[in-house]
Amino acid sequence: MAKSGERDRCVTGIDGLDNILGGGIPRSNIVLVAGACGTGKTTLAFEFLVRGSLMGESGLLISTVESQDKLVSNIPHFIFFNDKMLVKGQVAIMELEHLLESANLSPSKMDEAAVKKLVSAIGKTVAASKVKRLVIDSIDTILGEIKDEALNALLLSDLSIILYKNECTALLVTSEETCKTIEGRVADGIIMMGNHERRGDLLRTMQVIKMKATSHSRSKYVIDLTPAGVLVTPILKGGS
Length: 240
Description:
The chain is α/β, with parallel strands linked by helices. The protein has one domain (9-234): P-loop containing nucleotide triphosphate hydrolases (Rossmann fold). It has helices spanning 15-20, 41-54, 68-74, 84-87, 96-102, 112-128, 139-146, 149-165, 176-179, 182-186, and strands at residues 9-10, 25-26, 30-35, 59-63, 91-95, 133-137, 169-174, 189-198, 201-211, 220-226, 229-234. Helix 6 packs parallel to helix 8 (149-165).
């Protein structure tokens, strides 16, 4: 529960991240999970959905790159995850192509009207299934189809409004390059994933750069991707 006067928190279930954020992500925030390939972005985002399911919050993953079958075959094998969560719809997966088809949209014609229609389609899906946790992996595919910074900002701004109304918290997986553009300024939060070289080893790192409506640590942490979930360790304890 949030303290008096504070926004309610969406507890991620990832202990180290919740500690960094003082109890979780302020509910309804849109957060960019940014970084290079292989830094653990998708794993972090998927654990966010699964942990939410275990707490009774339905989740939706919109896949913009992989097919649902391929995505399911590649998802992390957490010891607390059961395939029945997918069958029962506790964690739903939707391909971007199907979302566009349902809204009668073509990815090659993403003007302002199409952007608003796409956001409306996402909002209707969220509302109909009472989705409380949304992941889009990756948002770069959608923004790349739009190819207009003003429309990209419009998409995230309108999406933010719809998710806030539905009390839905979102993690948008993106590249570090995209995060540096207008999208980074529009988002409520930024979790930067990266690499740290130590004596020939390449360690994964995580750093909360920005998070509206809460105080938080801005230190860099080492993370390990394990069957028990994402483990977070202060980088000084992990070595230099």
